[in-house]
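Researcher: I'm preparing a figure for a lab meeting and need a structural model of a single chain. I don't have an experimental structure, so a prediction will have to do for now. The sequence is pasted below. Please return the structure as tokens so I can convert it later.
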Amino acid sequence: MNPINHDVNRAFIIGIIINMAYVLVEAFAGIYFNSLSLISDAGHNLSDVAALGLAMLAFRLAKRKANDKFTYGYKKSTILVSLINSVILFVAIGVILWESINRVFNPVVVDGQAISIVAGVGIVVNTVSALLFFKNKEHDLNVKGAYLHLIADAAVSLGVVISGLFIAFWSIYWLDLVMSLVIVAVIFYSTWNLFKESFSLTMDGVPNGINLSSISALILSVDGVKSVYHIHIWALSTTQNAITAQVVVYSNLDLEGQSMIRQQIKKLLNKENIQHITLEVTMEQNISVDCKD
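Model: Understood. Here is the structure written out token by token.
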């Protein structure tokens, strides 16, 4: 196994185990101490465990080779996982909001010191989990997403610690409810962006960071290219993109010249994070040569 793949796979396994253990502890503490912020954060962290599990599954599937049935392999699973993760998080948001509404009409006294201690453990758990992905976070979007999500969770746990201290020292019990709503807002913000991007990629939308007009202009900048049309760009996975296009070249170019243009276009598109390239090179007289990668 590739060393990077081995490290990432191990990071997912360790991250899932320690985060699941913390979810159980936090959920029990939240119920025992009547803390809505702890229960909310436990729900949030449970969705993280599910996200890590699905991301690990997608990471493994993406490495499987293509076959006669799935000619692109299973790379698309990484996009589907992102979409499923966003739906799970929306469900978690609904559950937390429902409990928050109930808590408004039925306020309870909570143990601020206990909340701070449990959330403090969460900071350690999330930080350690995030560091597992630090080295390889630039190699895969799902890995980077896991890293950023865990760092954000550590920040949320810090907020719960602070609210717990305020409750412990000044008996400001309503801060527990406020912090649960802050957690909901944080989850919703990140989830909405994740949902929009993953839904767009699922529908074969142009990936973020790639502009169709700019790609067209880039191809036209190559010497010998007269025009380009029928451009389609879509994501094969969260890390790989594809393009098909018809390129019209001037009639004075022979097959070798067309091949050179194709190679130049390929190099330019690779720099724009487009790896799978299919070009139909057509001369002005409509004599076409199909060139595929």
